[in-house]
Write a structure and sequence with these properties.
The complex is a heterodimer of chains A (1002) and B (216). Chain A is of the alpha/beta class. Chain A has 35 helices and 43 strands. Chain B is mostly helical. Classes of the chains: A alpha/beta (1002), B mainly alpha (216).
């Protein structure tokens, strides 16, 4: 086995040497072109049943087939079941039955808001879209906001108030709570602790403050595992106060990201992505683009967008930043004494690294005021402070970097906050613990021993959406109202407040955090609506409050609430900064939240579980990510289980070899290994929290990796639907492209229009088409989840995914280019291309897939008999087949979730991207009713709507002025596999990189 | 060796082979007849309703416009079924004690909806939109039959796909001027073919027969 692995890397090297020019690959196996890989390519549908070799003879076969046909025929001869129409007794004013309504509200994630518009059908919220006027959305959403609909209708949500696992009532809870509160009155609430997650809600914070003034010795603690502690400490060190940082990528020409995944995990990421990608688009009007340098440890999506990416083990970061700061002259000017590991630093001061750093510094200096250095939430305060000093020295503060007073009303170092809480709990000082959201038993640092601390508390109350590990250890569990079920408010990354309005009454009588605090205040029964409204009424809203309220609720944004930028004074001067990293030897362990289920809170969300992780393309599991070289040194192969030993604790987990990962280190994603959640998330993956301590929440040295002989099967989609060795992504550098724009077209052969036996496809009227800008696409996956939500796409589970039967209509192919150590990474969303000469249509025996006058490749479910010939004949492998009854027709709450404009597919039916034909039809009807043509931009497909990078554009290609036509007229435009003559309607705009020539040459 | 088959077998087998054509044709005919019969389609079958509502009385005798009750027909895919409140606007005053209307009053008292039996029920994979048909001059009567003459409501047509497609292929045979869409006794003053073709042109009616127009 070990020998095989060595062979694999040797084979990779061998082939790399012999390869000429650009080559793209998706996995190490593919790069090495192993026999196993060859076999996988041959076997398009892995694990398909083998050819029939049982002893059924011809006669028997005919008998069975005859009987089946007859029965199927008889089965079709049924009368439709009787249906009922149930009208309103008194109809609501604004609702037109059959037409959706849209409401603005806000999705809260990590404490911060994304403004959303929610589509509601007859009172059922069915689809979440971005709110174009909300500063943190600009019309886009992330995967979590898209999946919030499933979270609402999750049948495994807690549905009743329970005491010690037994069904109880809200009234009995109130009785017990009031007794506890009563006894606390005499001691000013000294035994009361409230634990929340990050809170930016002005009303909730105000209510909590009222509670604290009622019980002065009670404490409000905040903790969530992915927090912004280091940012706070960093600004405190640099400026002497907690500040929030905002970036303006629309002004940034040169960007350096130091372990910051700013396109994905910041409260302002959607806005950052929009601005960043706008600066990367090369078209008729824009011939310049920004340049991105990324230095990171775990490969991230931001890293994949980099023009120059450097992977560094976490322990080397501080020295790197120190050397860079020296190069920029920051230390000299401020009189800073940097105390870093000199051997590490000297490595950065010679050879290729030296010229890399010098080139970056030079580039930064050339763009003073329009450069930008971002830093990750996991970097030490000293590193953060140094970055602020560098931005200041480069004149970026006030231009590309802005500081504001903290958006959180009560900013705390959450790690300390939780430690104080657990210390008090251990000391027996806590009599009443109210946990409002969050799951500390599962996700608190393991060294704080939260589980044991819980047992010291007399009365424990937990409010959460589902009964989880924390609920299990609490006396009372109260089902939480989903944000689509409750009133509230929340602030965005820039301070802009939004009113959260409910779309539906609580499905299970859940309570919101606001309602819980109101109850603690002794005002049980006061509605959240009144509390939120009263709070805003008490604020200075200028003039007519009713008008203000109506406008704010309607818009989803409270105008003029954005925080004012501050110009803080750098306090950093003439002092020494400790950048030394402790090194306990062994490997380095890196902790990161899981890309799709985050800190574990989305573990029961099938859409997010099945969404392939952006880089590894794993589904339903996490893995230990290691570099190819480390794997070679330890003789490890994919899916082999290793034992991770760190600070006396051990866990076992499967390995996934990740190109671009730094050597001598391993990344574990926390969030998996949930012990108590719904059946979707229970038992998936391993629990990385078991190793995560408060001393080293993000990375540390001293990890031992011990190989075992076990293997654990992981379900990855990276080799599914393989397109073999054709050039599917096209990439050029800005220089090459500017010198020779036709380059992109020359990369592949495109047959002349008339080179076909079929009659030319005539298409007057509308001609729908799509263009996808690969330069903008970050691979985040929002389109995939948006499509899943809009089109009622089923979840199939790990077993089916491993057989290549995932149903998502959009897959994002991830290609590597170059060496396995420092590859470049490209993303390509692939869905049905709606070919004008569609190979699928001509092979369907029942004409279930046909071509419309407007160029749509239509899939008619009720006609499909499931021969799968179309899928066989599809060169893009974008057709999805319902091998089993994947759609849940039984669960009532899931029935409520479905988009009523799209058929829910049953077993034995093929499906694929429809270009959101329901939206096309709806726009066509609207236009016809107004006797006009459909306007450009009136039809927005679900994927286009969700895309934060504005990479996807849909429209009429017969209209030369439409956005999509103008995109297709770019030189960068090319058709995927256009050489086979399919004439795809979806085309791609090639990716352009903007490398620094000084680095390229060295 | 004796003959295995009697000579008459020849005739028998010839008749069988010839007759098989009729048997297969007959089976196909029977199948199609059953499929199109009102037993399967429920066309022209009166459905039992909680209240024996008469369109004849309300529409023809009283002259109430269709849109008074089916209020979303011009705006939505769904024409709308009147709320209890709509019924009660009149029936709190007229026939306010009639036994027949007790379910309506009960619904009004208890706040529990009336449950009507759906008469025109398309399969779930068919997406029909009332508003655009009304806009393009397809009258209520064209699909719903002589509704003004129905004392109890039935569906006039099978609502089979071939019935839909007949009009989608040749709308000129069916459309009428917009102002008469809600009329129940309209007859074309000139020949329908000539009038229809003129309307098709004026209203810019496209004969949309792509599958995804209705199936998606």
């Amino acid at each position: 086995m070990n020998e095989m692995k060595n062979n694999l890397l040797d084979q990779v090297r061998e082939r790399m040497k012999s390869k000429q020019g650009q080559s793209y690959w998706r996995s190490l196996e593919e790069l090495a072109d192993t026999p196993e890989f060859q076999q996988l390519v041959q076997n398009e549908f892995p694990d398909s049943p083998m050819p029939w070799d049982t002893s059924v003879d011809r006669r028997g076969f005919l008998k069975f087939m005859g009987a089946s046909l007859a029965l199927a025929g008889l089965g079709a001869c049924t009368r439709q079941p009787t249906e009922r129409i149930i009208p309103y007794v008194t109809p609501p004013e604004v609702m037109i039955p059959g037409e959706p309504l849209y409401f603005a509200t806000a999705h809260t994630f990590g404490g911060f808001a994304t403004g959303v518009i929610v589509e509601s059908h007859m009172g059922r919220p069915t689809k979440i879209e971005g709110n174009p006027i909300h500063p943190a959305s600009l019309g886009a959403t992330d995967i979590f906001a898209q999946a919030a609909v499933l979270e609402l209708y999750d049948p495994d949500r807690a549905q009743v108030v329970s005491r010690a696992g037994r069904i109880s009532t809200w009234e009995s809870f109130l009785a017990e709570l009031n007794t506890a509160l009563e006894s606390q009155k005499s001691v000013s609430g000294a035994g009361i602790r409230i634990l929340t997650e990050t809170i930016t809600s002005p009303t909730l914070a105000n209510q909590l403050q009222s509670f604290l003034s009622l019980y002065p010795d009670a404490k409000w603690r905040q903790y969530e595992p992915v927090n912004r502690d280091q940012y706070k400490k960093g600004t405190e060190l640099a400026f002497g106060e907690f500040l929030d940082i905002g970036y303006d990528f629309s002004r940034a020409e040169v960007i350096l990201s130091l372990d910051a995944d700013f396109l994905v995990d910041q409260p302002g990421s959607l806005k950052y992505t929009r601005d960043f990608s706008a600066k990367r688009k090369i078209d008729h009007d824009h011939s310049e683009m920004s340049r991105l340098y990324v230095v990171e440890s775990t490969p991230t999506l931001t890293g994949t967008m980099a023009d120059h990416r450097l992977s560094l083990a976490p322990s080397r970061f501080a020295a790197f930043v120190g050397v860079l700061a020296e190069e920029l002259g920051v230390t000299r000017n401020l009189g800073l004494q940097l105390n870093y590991d000199s051997s590490q630093a000297s490595a950065f001061k010679r050879g290729a690294m030296d010229s890399w750093i010098k080139a970056v510094a030079k580039d930064m200096n050339r763009h003073r005021g329009s450069s930008l250095i971002t830093v990750g939430a996991q970097q030490a305060p000293e590193v953060q402070a140094l970055v602020h000093a560098m931005n200041q020295a480069l004149g970026n503060v006030g231009s590309t970097v802005t500081f504001t007073a903290p958006i959180e009303p009560n900013p705390v170092i959450q790690q300390d906050s939780l430690r104080e809480l657990t210390d008090d709990m251990h000391a027996g000082k806590v009599e009443l613990l109210v946990v409002l959201g969050g799951n500390p038993v599962f996700n608190a640092p393991v060294d704080l021993n939260f589980t044991q601390a819980m047992s010291e508390v007399k009365l424990r109350v937990h409010l959460s959406l589902e009964e989880d590990e924390t609920s299990e250890l609490c006396h009372w569990h109260i089902p939480r109202a989903h944000f689509l079920e409750s009133w509230g408010d929340v602030r965005a990354y820039d301070g802009t407040a939004s009113i959260v309005q409910p779309l539906i009454a609580p499905l299970y009588g859940g309570k919101s955090a606001l309602e819980m605090v109101t109850t603690l205040l002794g005002q049980a029964g006061t509605s959240d609506y009144d509390v939120v409204r009263n709070y805003w009424q008490s604020q200075d809203t200028g003039g007519d409050f009713e008008k203000f309220w109506q406008q704010s609720v309607h818009d989803g944004v409270i105008a003029g609430t954005a925080a004012k930028p501050k110009t803080p004074k750098l306090k950093l001067s003439s002092q020494s900064l400790d950048l030394a990293s402790s090194n306990a030897g062994g490997f380095e362990i890196i902790f990161r939240p899981d890309p799709t289920i985050w800190d574990g809170r989305f573990a029961n969300n099938g859409w997010l579980q099945e969404l392939p992780k952006p880089l590894t393309k794993l589904t339903w599991d996490n893995a230990v990510l290691i570099s190819p070289a480390t794997a070679e040194r330890l003789s490890l192969k994919n899916q082999q289980v290793v034992e991770l030993a760190y600070q006396g604790r051990t866990i076992e987990a499967p390995v996934w070899i990740t190109p671009g990962h730094p050597d001598q280190s391993a990344t574990v994603h926390f969030g998996y290994g949930r012990r108590r959640t719904g059946p979707v998330g229970s038992g998936a993956g391993f629990d990385a929290y078991a190793l995560r301590t408060s001393g080293a929440p993000w990375s540390d040295s001293g990890l031992q990796i011990k190989p075992t002989t076990k293997t654990y099967a992981l379900a990855t989609t990276q080799l599914h639907s393989n397109m073999e060795n054709r050039h599917l992504v096209r990439v050029a550098t800005l220089e090459e492209y500017q010198a020779h724009p036709e380059l992109i077209h020359e990369m592949g052969h495109e047959p002349a229009d008339d080179l076909t036996f079929y009659p030319k496809f005539e298409n007057p009227g509308y001609a729908w088409g799509m263009a996808i800008d690969l330069n903008a696409c970050t691979g985040c996956g929002a389109c995939t989840v948006a499509c899943q939500s809009e089109n009622n796409i089923a979840v199939v589970g790990k077993d089916q995914v491993s057989k290549g039967r995932e149903m998502q209509w959009i897959r994002i192919d991830r290609y590597y280019e170059g060496s396995p150590e420092q590859p470049e990474t490209h993303h390509q969303p692939v869905m049905c291309m709606h070919c004008e000469n569609a190979p699928c249509e001509v092979v369907c025996p029942v004409a279930a897939t046909t071509h419309s006058d407007e160029g749509l490749n239509e899939m008619i479910y009720n006609r499909c008999v499931g021969t799968r010939y179309c899928s066989n004949n599809c060169p893009y492998k974008v057709r999805r087949f319902n091998f089993f009854l994947y759609s849940d027709f039984e669960t009532e709450s899931l029935q409520l979730m479905r988009n009523p404009d799209v058929t829910v597919r049953s077993r034995g039916v093929m499906e694929k991207c429809t270009y959101c034909v329901q939206r096309i039809n709806s726009a066509r009807i609207d236009a016809k009713k107004e006797d006009r043509l459909i306007r450009d931009g009136e039809i927005v497909s679900a994927c286009q709507q969700a895309c934060p990078a504005d990479a996807i554009v849909f429209g009429d290609i017969n209209d030369p002025e439409s956005r999509v036509s103008r995109m297709k007229a770019e030189h960068r435009n090319y058709g995927l596999l256009a050489d086979v003559g399919t004439r795809p309607r979806t085309t791609y705009l090639a990716k352009i990189r903007n490398p620094n020539r000084e680095i390229e040459q060295s | 060796m004796a003959q295995l088959f009697h000579p008459s077998t020849n005739t028998f087998s010839k008749v069988t082979i010839f007759g098989a054509l009729f048997i297969i044709a007959g089976a196909a005919w029977t199948f199609l007849t059953i499929e199109r019969s009102s037993y399967v389609t429920q066309a022209r079958v009166v459905r039992q309703q909680p209240v024996p509502f008469s369109h004849r009385h309300h529409v023809s005798q009283l002259g109430i416009d269709c849109r008074y009750c089916h209020s979303s027909v011009e705006e939505s895919s769904f024409a709308g079924i009147p709320s209890t409140k709509t019924c009660m606007t009149c029936h709190s005053q007229i026939h306010s004690t009639a036994d027949m209307l007790e379910p309506v009053r009960e619904s009004w008292r208890t706040g529990k909806s009336l449950e009507w039996i759906r008469v025109h029920d398309l399969p779930d994979f068919v997406y029909f939109n009332h508003s655009i048909h009304v806009k393009k001059g397809v009258a209520c009567e064209t699909c719903h039959g002589p509704i003004g003459k129905m004392a109890l409501t039935w569906k006039e047509h099978s609502l089979n796909m071939e019935w839909c497609i007949d009009c989608h292929k040749d709308p000129a045979a069916f459309v009428r001027p917009r102002q008469f869409v809600f009329s129940t006794d309209w007859r074309p003053a000139i020949e329908q073919r000539i009038l229809g073709e003129r309307i098709v042109e004026n209203y810019d009616i496209n004969s949309l027969t792509n599958c995804s127009i209705c199936h998606r």
